[in-house]
Design goal:
Elements: H1 2-19, E1 32-38, E2 44-49, E3 56-63, E4 69-75, E5 83-88, E6 96-104, E7 118-121, E8 129-132, E9 137-140, E10 150-154, E11 164-169, E12 173-176
Antiparallel strand pairs: 1-2, 2-5, 3-4, 3-6, 6-7, 8-9, 9-12, 10-11
Length: 186
């Protein structure tokens, strides 16, 4: 009788182990960053491509050589591959900021974020003047202390499209020859 009882207990223990398997949800993929850019109001725009399975995105920032800090959350975006946008209006001139983004699933699983990130030097706000010209739209601004050059970006006004680079210059003016008549850009 002892042998039969022992065999029965072992069989129950093995069955319980089989049914105790737990499935963990995988974190969504890590979003791909798009270079961050300074906005004319002095804030920084962080952009990334959205990924499948993400319910939202955590935005991380490192100031100068400090540790990474989560500075914001952006809720669910549209379809995967669309652009995600976060505006950091807490930046200060003279600092170097590095940004990264992680994706978060609806059950709280978080992807990794790139520790390389995208770095941007904040050198101040440029007051831009826009004029219509024969050759295109002429942008002019006063020199910004510490700046060695300027990158000019544009996107259709009122959208969250990824800004496209219109060009770069070391002077304090730029003529954008690729704009379309009667179109609004920012």
């Amino acid at each position: 009788m002892k042998k039969k009882l022992l065999a029965f207990v072992l069989t129950l223990a093995m069955a319980a182990t089989i049914f105790a398997t737990v499935t963990f949800a995988a974190a969504p993929a890590q979003p791909k960053l798009i270079p961050a850019g300074m906005r004319t109001d002095g804030s920084v725009e962080v952009n990334w491509y959205t990924v499948a399975g993400a319910d939202g995105y955590n935005i991380y920032r490192k100031t100068n050589s400090d540790d990474w800090e989560c500075i914001g959350y952006v809720g669910s975006m549209s379809t995967p591959g669309a652009s995600g946008v976060y505006i950091d209006s807490t930046v200060q001139s003279g600092n170097s900021y590095t940004y990264s983004v992680s994706s978060v699933s609806d059950d709280g699983e978080e992807s990794s974020y790139s520790t390389a990130g995208n770095t941007i030097e904040c050198v101040g706000k440029a007051a831009v003047t826009v004029k219509n010209g024969v050759a295109g739209i002429k942008l002019e601004w006063p020199a910004v202390a510490g700046a060695t050059g300027y990158k000019i970006y544009r996107r259709p006004a009122g959208t969250h499209d990824i800004p496209t680079e219109a060009g770069d210059t070391t002077s304090t003016s730029f003529v954008d020859k690729k704009v379309t008549a009667c179109s609004a850009f920012e």
